[in-house]
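Objective 1b. Sequence-to-structure analysis of ABC transporter substrate-binding protein.
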Amino acid sequence: MRLRLLAAGLMLAAGAVLAAPAPASGYRFQIFPGGDSSLTVRIAEDLYKRLVPTFAGFRTELAQRRRMVYIAIGPDALREAVARRCDCVVIAAFTSSQVWHAVVDRLPPARARMMTAVYAEPAPGDQLRLAALLYRRPVRAAAILGPDTDYLQPLLAGQADVLQAGRDDNLGDVLTRLQRHEVLLALPDSAIYNPENIRNILLSTYRRKQAVIGFSADMVKVGALATTYSEIEDINAQVAEMAASFVASGELPAPQFPRYFRTTINEGVARSLDIVVSPEARRFARARP
């Protein structure tokens, strides 16, 4: 009887040990590519090389419990990573701030705190600095925000006037309210800037001799005056820095706009707007280390 009780006690003790998970003693990472296009493969390969040095120092025994860091490339990968139930953090990249908020703002606060991002679009502050360099003085700028991008309003306070566009508002009427502004700061809002109306926006502002600071190099090619933009390697370098900061401190950095960038200018549009582009505007950039 005493032996049976002893055996039962050992089994209960073993069960208690197995039931309590071992504390995390390191980190590992996984890249969610969100597709298999050649561009995505290029992003993932470059990102992998940048992340390996941060994680290589942790032991890899199978019994060791390590915390997972997911790197999500693009919106689909972000949604896939969010769906995972795990002791993990998520760093998203190549996803606009609008999509990021649409996904993350619906999560429970505790889960949302374990997610961060390097947004796909340029920082509004950098864009407005570029506008001032192009005009060689402070400019009166405006930005149009829809219901899904209203979160940007505090960021623009004191830097640009905000025009609200409701879902049922006529965009032409909103654009007429820009008459006192020299620059329209375009921000990626799919309800405002989409293939159906972006040409009309560019034509409307162009006729009024107003500059559009775009949110991508492609937008500059079709008629915006200028933009800052980041290469794949610029975004990946920032993601790797964010992951290294988390591994070193245990604190996940807040979502960020791209830190490293360069500038592209539509020279034809500049001439039409009587803007003489300065060397300082052409060289406006922040190079990665």
